[in-house]
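Preliminary data (for renewal application), 5'-deoxyadenosine complex.
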Amino acid sequence: MCYAIPGKVVKIEDSVVTVDYFGERRKAKNDFLKLNLGEYVLAQGGFIIQRISQPEAETTLEAWKELFFSLKNTDLKLSQRANTLHQRANYIRHKTLGNACCVHAIIEFSNYCRNDCLYCGIRKGNCSLTRYRMSCEEIINLASWAAKDLNFKALVLQSGEDTWFDDEKLVSVVERIMDEATCLLILSIGERQLETYRKLYAAGARGALLRFETSNAGLYEKFRPGHILQSRIQLIKELRQIGYLIMTGFLIGLPGQSQEDILSDIKLTSQLGTDLFSFGPFIPHPDTPLAKASLPCLEEVLNTIANCRILNPEAKILVTTALDTLDKENGLKFGLLAGGNSLMINITPERYQRLYEIYPDRAGTGQQVRKKIEETVNLLHSLGRAPIDLGF
Ligand code: 5AD
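Predicted structure:
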């Protein structure tokens, strides 16, 4: 299965390259390769990540051609109604962005965390959790397997705020993954020094996933003791200045959060120039101070996706595992039909994934990776979505 389709380079202006996909043209940034007009490339998240030989590109394009247009047709049929809020959002998604749905892989490499966020199951105060750290070799091998054998073009490396992974270790992991298999590497490692992020950008990482969690400063400070909202936001802005693609967002359903707060959350996500919106339901964890809080309802989460899409027609909006967990039957499908257009597949080995328990009973835990990919692709196809990322 291919998570990016080859496009032909039709224009080069310094580091900005125009790529043609079956007549659709998109721009992508070229930081990693020396390219000529007429060459075939794979792009992800707006970055060129790989050159593809002409015969290989032509074979892939031939295999895709029929499917590409038949999927577009299915999507067209499913997006024509605009009666309900969700349908309107889905219509806008279809009109603005077509049927591409990016599918990223996520590797959770350590559940050690120096923070004590009241909502999070891997908070340092949770003494009943068994802690783990993957070795650098394990992370590199897993990432390389994901990129080479599973064909993922975008990988998220996620952990709690674990300073055992110092700059030297993180830089070497990023450099070695990029050496083995160039891909769009996204870091989700929390609030680290700006200098650390600079070094990691130089090493080849291009995405930063860091939610601001809530735009309500009072709630933020209550639920993230010892932290202030302003410094989180400042860091996100600085990461953007470095050149990182920004993936950020918030939790829906925190105790005390109002509808107005959620609207402000959507607005703040847009104002930050977010490339991928990442927000999902808060799911109480039994070993945290918020154990007794109630779950948000599915409708509230779907409405947030829909409102977000209506306010941000061009956004990439992630349908999260937390939504999948909230409704294991239909969460992903409903999210995709309410305006979502991006998914993540967790490829962390099961023995670790069970322990990355930010909230309990996470959807997909224990399921074989290849099976998960197959199910995701089937779901996307049934909705007329192509599991590819044509970028911007
Ligand atoms: N429910 C849902 N999401 C959670 N996160 C942390 N704890 C929970 C929870 N109980 C999210 C936070 C964090 C991301 C990695 O996981 O938003 O940024």
